[in-house]
Amino acid sequence: MCGVYFNFTEDGFTCVATDGRLLVKRVDKTIKSGATQGFILGKKPATILRTIASGFENPMPINVRFTDKSVMFFNDSFTMTCRLIEGRYPNYNSVIPTTVTEQVYISRTALIDTLSRVAVFSPTSELVVLDFKANTVEVACQDVDYSMSGKETLRCAYEGTGIRIGFKHSYLDALLRNITTDDVVFKMTDKSHAAIVEPFNAGDENVELVSLIMPMVVD
User: Fold this and answer.
1) 124-142 residue pLDDT tens
2) Separation of alpha carbons 107 and 183, rounded Å
């Protein structure tokens, strides 16, 4: 749970990370291996690797060589070696819902901007409530102790009967900022089960990004 899982298969490369409240899975079908094999990279070396990779002016391939105990990332510009986290990674696919009853298509940037405004009125719990109805979503935060509240309504394309669900706004904001498409799709079942958030019209059939966020209790 404290590391990033790298899994290489004949069908593609899967990268997964979760803290128990958020889960992000990215599949790249262009990167394939002759056999199924994987490892768990710790959070700190994963952060360092991301910093190194993002520092290249042009995209550069990174080679990976690993054993049961350690892994080495390298190319012509750098070499990084670190120990791996021992153990078996949880079955992440088992927590991703396979059937959903509610689907919402909404502007990612508009939702991020709305969250930043209503979050000013959020209490310590950081609870933000999304109330989906017809083709609108009401985004609201309330601080009962100080009798303050903030509420905005956004347009969306909605397929469902209506759902009111709560999230921790800092988690939802981080999840949305990790997606690059203009629009996203929320896939939900009810207010007590995890919601799936995916890019909409990503334009690359070889790459799949699935984000999962656990809801908070709402009245």
Assistant:
1) 789 999 999 889 999 999 8
2) 4
Give DSSP secondary structure letters for the chain: --EEEEEE-SS-EEEEEE-SSEEEEEEETTS--SS-EEEEEEHHHHHHHHHHHHT-SS----EEEE-SSEEEEE-SS-EEEEEPPPS----GGGGS-S--SEEEEEEHHHHHHHHHHHGGG--TT-EEEEEEETTEEEEEEEETTTTEEEEEEEE-EEESS-EEEEEEHHHHHHHHHT--SSEEEEEES-TTSPEEEEEES-S-TTEEEEEEE--B---
Q: What is the mean pLDDT of the chain?
A: 91
Q: For the chain, which domains are there? A: 3-94 (3.10.150.10), 102-213 (3.10.150.10)
pLDDT tens-digit map of 4-42: 999 999 999 999 999 889 999 999 999 988 888 999 999
The reported pTM is 0.88
CB 6 within 8 A of CB 15: yes
Say which residue the tokens 């009111």 belong to: 164
Quote the distance between the C-alpha of residue 18 and its chain's center: 9
Q: How confident is the model at residue 114 (pLDDT cuts 50, 70, 90)?
A: very high
How far are the Cα atoms of 90, 186, 191, 193 from residue 165, in angstroms, in the given order?
A: 26, 11, 5, 9
User: How high is the pLDDT of residue 147?
Assistant: 80
